[in-house]
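Hi V.,

You were right to ask for the full record rather than a summary. Here it is.
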Amino acid sequence: MVAPQAVVPAGTPALSITDLRKTYDTGVQALKGVSLQVAPGDFFALLGPNGAGKSTLIGIVSSLVNKSAGEVEVFGVNLAQDRDGAMRLLGLVPQELNFNMFEKPLDILVNYAGFYGLPRAEALVRAEEELKRAQLWDKATSMSRTLSGGMKRRLMIARAMMTRPRLLILDEPTAGVDIEIRRGMWKTLKEINAAGTTIILTTHYLEEAESLCRNVAIIDRGTIVEQGPMRALLAKLDVEGFVFDIDGELPARLPAIEGTTLVATDDHTLDLDMPRAMDLNRVFAALNESGIRVRSMRTKSNRLEELFVRLTGDEAAAKRAQVA
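Predicted structure:
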């Protein structure tokens, strides 16, 4: 039998990391005193460029990498003191596809559950539930190697959910799948989170984090450079960008709108940067006065991506210099 999960006192963080450090034998400092907390029920994004320390952090939390110093607790269970207890609370979906391609999805899930001591009869019931949620029930007895890339990713999530983890960590779960499949996976993850499972997501698709996550931490060079509510972080940006599609051709001279940058990218398209506090109606009024009619508009860039570049670029470098 699977050992029962301990009763967790109210208010206990889903994940608590304190001054976590990792120095590899090569001398590389992958983590330089990372501290963060994830609340129960949260959908949390962990973002950072390649080499920032995300994979090392996840590896330590999931007990795949040994820490150099610091503390990790999963729902109050200290990883160093009770590894098995902490791991019973946690599910991991790694970047790599790490199941037997010559096994059937149903067998993969049932065998995984058996590894954790779940009786076969109960594992079969759970496997059906998870495969149906992942929209893979019709593929339950097909060879896994015949599944599409998106199906294999969903199978990884279904497998991790077989132990009913309270904390689910997803490391680049939608890497390499097209946008339609990705959005289908978003729906599944939202359902899992709504049912009470805390989710931590790492992703390079920054619009994914903005769409799914309520809180975010941004890591760069082994240090957390920013963390907090997603909306609060996005609100820090003082510039918004838009693209206007224009009816007819543009005039030879564009209107000068104070505080903005307006550039024609071709004969029928305008690129606008403006302060967030500015009333967009001012821009439309100026365009109308110049005889420019806007047919449609769209956001020029992902706001989270802009924030990410700022915090891991010049601003983060300035913070590091101040600390030094």
